[in-house]
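haha ok so turns out i had the wrong file open the whole time. this is the CORRECT one, sorry everyone. sequence first:
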Amino acid sequence: MKNTTSIILLLAMMFSPQTLFGAELPSDMVRIQAGCFMMGTSDSYLYEDDDDNAREKPAHKVCLDAFYMDKFEVTQRKWDAVMPANRSVFHKPEQPITHIDWREAKKYCQKIGRRLPTEAEWEYAARAGTQTRFPWGSEMDGDYLWYADNSSREPADVGKKKPNAWGLYDMVGGVWEWVEDWFSHRYYQSSPVKNPKGPDRQSYRVIRGNSWISEEKQVHVTARHKGLSDPTENYWVGVRCAMTP
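then structure:
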C-alpha cells in the first residue's frame, strides 16, 4: 500500500493533472467536468407571450461529458489573426468580435482546432453549478456583467467583470454567442438526457448569453433566441469556442 501511494505522489509531482489524465489544457480554456444539471426554467418571470416562454421551458435534466470552454468571448485580436473579415462596429482588439454569422463562428473554431459548444454545454458552463436566475445568484449584480444599465454605448473589453464560479467571464452580458444547435421553441419538451445535440434541421441556430444592450428584465442564464443566417441581422453576436478533451 505504501509503495502504491508513493508512486501516485511521484506521478503527481512529475505531471500536471491535464498531462496525467488527458490532453494538455490550453491556457485560455477551462476544463468543465462531466455532470448533470437542470437545464431551462419553470419560472414565470420571463416573457408575457406564452410562445416566448415556451422556448425556455420546461426545466429538464441534462447530463454531459467533460469538455473545455473558452474563458473569454473571442476577441477581435484573435479573430483577425485567422479570419479574413471583421464587421464589428467598433474595431478594438480586446473587444469581442461581433456581427458574425453562424458559419463564420463555426469556421473560426475549427481553424484553431476547436468547435462550437452545444447549447446544453453552454448553459451548464454558464450556470457553474447554480440553479438561479443568474450564475451568481437570484439578484442582478453589475460586478459580473455588462448590460444596458452599466455599459458605455459599446461592448467592453473581455474579462473586465468577475468570472463565474468555474472561471468563465462574460457568460451573461457582453455579446450574444453562437452555439452549435438548431433552434426550436419546443425542443426542451423532448430533449434527451445524455449529451443533447439539439433538434433536427430547422431555420435558425441558437444564440445564448444576452448582451451589453440587454435590459435587466431580459437578462437571465436561460435566455435563448434564434439567430438569423444573414450576418447583417445578427448585430451583437459573437462566439466562444469549446473543445473535446
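Residues 184 and 199 are 7 Å apart (CA to CA).
again sry for the mixup
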